[in-house]
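FW: tagging you since you asked about this chain on Friday. Here's the raw sequence from the shared folder, copied in full. Didn't touch anything.
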Amino acid sequence: MPFRFGRTVDSPFPEGYSQAGPAAEALGERGGLLAENDMNLPNSLTVLRIFFVPLLVVVLLTRQPNLNVWGLPFHFEVWGVLILLVAAATDVMDGYLARKRREITTLGILLDPIADKLLISAAFISLVQMGLVPAWMVVLIIGREFIVVGLREIASIEGLVIPASALGKTKMVLQVLAGTVVILAAKHPGLKTLGMALLWLVVLSAVASAMHYFQMFWSQINTRVQQRRGEVLIVKQEEKPQDVLTR
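HL: got it, structure written out here
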């Protein structure tokens, strides 16, 4: 069974794997886009993002290291923000390089959304443990990810593609911004109000994008169901013997 390149992710930029689905499937059949070497530079960046996840969790939960570099304080919140931003940068670069270098691979399409969800989930769960983020907000944010993954999985089984939406990309950007501000708020309480405002925007965008994905999913599935019902009716009509009117 051939692999279907219909999976998409909420990359904040259009040059990511989020736009690779239809193009990869169309060009891949002609051998014009898919690379043979799985461990290329874009995929290496994706794997690097996965390795950043445990590092970020350790820094946030241990609140270490706290160093002075050339007289400047580099406490754990600064390291946490740097790790989060560098990891987010790899999310932008891996998709851009994959398309520019024509190195879109099956491994990259599979790993990219996993790396994104691991990074965001680990960051927000750690912030809940630190008492910086309400747990119910994180439940909604991560729950949205599971919903979208489930809808896309069902759609892919039916041979359908749910494209990444502008709401999903906006949510991804807001998540990184909110995570950055909330981490800094651990040592700078004056940022708590801004951090909470960004968290509300993340929650609202997560709920809105989940509803939008469900609407796209339902419209495609409903169309497919109606087509199947029509085909079944046609088959039944062909198999049904002609009625003979008798008086």
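FW: DSSP finds seven helices and two strands in the chain.
HL: agreed, and The longest strand covers residues 67-69.
FW: great, closing this out.
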